[in-house]
């Protein structure tokens, strides 16, 4: 039997393990498990985030994290969590000099701009702007993928977002990950034009309108 519940602090190591096993590449993974743990905690503390755990017969089988309002969640991360994230990131970079150089070359300026914008404040008037949420990560244990775990997590996230007044959801999947793209298409998400990230990797955005 598949069930979904809210992620708790005790579930963070499960999320980190599943992330590392199923999403083994990427800057956050290279920063190490301690940084990943701190990163996933932000979804537990943010007022605009959702963090879900799926269980099959009582055992963790997958998770999903995302935001109901990307502006508010981003502001939360930069204003209330940035020093914890920065401390974890710096500790990782100190023992990874090659990663440090890549950070300086591809990310440092962008992160600094984001902090400056956050310090200037954000408009949280829900009536004045189009609220967009982001499905950040959804990961399912390989042996339970045919049980509908991933679809249940995504559908539950969309239902929560709709109840909170989110008008559109967005996600990104690797442009060459055809199984993932077909998965989201079956759930009525619409693909958009490919985009490249800071490392030059191509991603396919998907959107889901909730109105």
From TrEMBL:
Pfam families: Acetyltransf_1. One of its GO terms (molecular function) is acyltransferase activity, transferring groups other than amino-acyl groups. InterPro entries: Acyl_CoA_acyltransferase, GNAT_dom. It comes from the Bacteria. Keywords: Transferase. Residues 7-211 form the N-acetyltransferase domain. This is GNAT family N-acetyltransferase. It comes from Nocardiopsis alborubida.
